[in-house]
Amino acid sequence: MDAPLTAAEIRSYADRVVAWCDEGSAGGSASGSAGGSADQVDLIAALEELKSAACAAQAQAAVAFDARRRAEQARAGVPAARQGRGIAAEVALARRESPHRGQSLLGLAKVLVTEMPHTLARLRDGSLNEFRATILARETGCLSAEQRSFVDEELCADPRALAGVGTRELLGRVRRLAAELDPAAVARRARRAEADRNVTVRPAPDTMAYLTGLMPVAQAVAAYASVRAAALSARAQGDQRSLGQLMSDLMLSRLTGLPDTGSAERAPAVPVTINLTMSEETLAGGHAPAVLSGDGVAGEVLPAEVARQLAAHALDDATAWFRRLYRNRLGRLVAMTSRQRLFPDGIAELLALQGLGICASPYCDAPVRHTDHLTPVEEGGATSAANGQGLCEACNHAKQAPGWRQRVVSSPRERPEVETITPTGHRYVATAPAPPGWREPRYVEIGPGRYGLVA
Fold this sequence. Notes:
- The protein is an alpha+beta fold and about 450 residues long.
- The chain has 5 domains: about 1-30; about 30-195, no CATH class; about 200-255; about 275-315, no CATH class; about 335-430, no CATH class.
- It is built from 15 helices and 14 strands.
- It has helices at about 5-25, 35-75, 85-95, 100-115, 115-125, 130-140, 145-155, 165-180, 185-195, 215-235, 245-255, 280-285, 305-315, 345-355, 395-400, and strands spanning about 200-205, 210-215, 275, 290-295, 295-300, 335-340, 370-375, 385, 390, 405-410, 415-420, 425-430, 445, 450-455.
- The strands form 6 sheets. A 3-stranded antiparallel beta sheet has the order 3-4-5.
- Helix 6 runs parallel beside helix 8 (about 165-180), helix 7 (about 145-155) packs antiparallel against helix 8 (about 165-180) and helix 10 (about 215-235) crosses helix 11.
- It is globular and about 65 Å long.
- The N and C termini lie far apart (about 60 Å).
């Protein structure tokens, strides 16, 4: 049997690839001078196969790691109901992903290794990539283990059956098979999916955002048709806005109850609380960007001019409230302390704004939901801004598992920098994003051997 694969071997080969890329950026053989066009295409294909094989190896390693960590937790006396907590977060950190993504990847790995061996084999040989393997696992989630195994064999036993198959066609194949094998299960899944209806917001380019409603298809089509019909009617009556602008403004008007402004250049003002954080220099005409955030919504960076326009529009509509967060001359937010066990609202909001509303865990992009002590209270940690951080719910629960530790590694004058140490001893450092008005220290020589701080 071959010797087990090690991280050192993988990194050694990765170094070879990086060296090849560096040679190409310097005008060497990697830039295309070595070999013909066919050789370059073969190289691209081989690298794609390598990526898929790496995903398969990651899946198998994740399942083995999960089994070992659960065994360790059982030997340590962790209650059965709490065994497994934090494992997906460790996988996420290792893969530089969010905890939610880590949970999905670990779940996919377990399905592939235990129930879908042919799909795993096609991932190993490059016939499938990780995204398509995820589709196969997701769409068979409502089937029994035996039915899922049948679909796995039917679709993936022969790699030639996947040649030239696109993602949409593969999705159609697996859905047709699932509906034929257990139509009742597919129907139940559709009914259960209605419980997952929700509304989300995510950033878009140029200080825009996507407001997305997840709902049953009949309701979604009806809502879209209603807004579109109203927009077409307004256009027929002479409204000069584009159909897209009208649909957006009408949807906002219906959701908030505000009157439609009828302006093509400016969206309606909204009398709800949002946090627009900027330095006084930006408010007075400076160029430092600001940050816009809201309850449960991660912060979004805004250009200075856009931020000033938002503030001016709010004043025009008499909907603005101003609060000040005090900082020192370098832009550091001032710390606050409390004797309470739970963080007061003021400190909790300060910590959320300090991270631009984004979870402080490495690689996690989820909005802040919890305020957490870096050093736990039972270990003497204070309820203070210096010992606090804003986390999402998943990260806060993960770090409560045995073996997780955190410590501050930055100077009090610098942006908060926290090191997370997992039960396996791996260390990950996350630095809080720069708040509006932040300036890195700058020193200039003001005389022979003398330097002065200028910013």
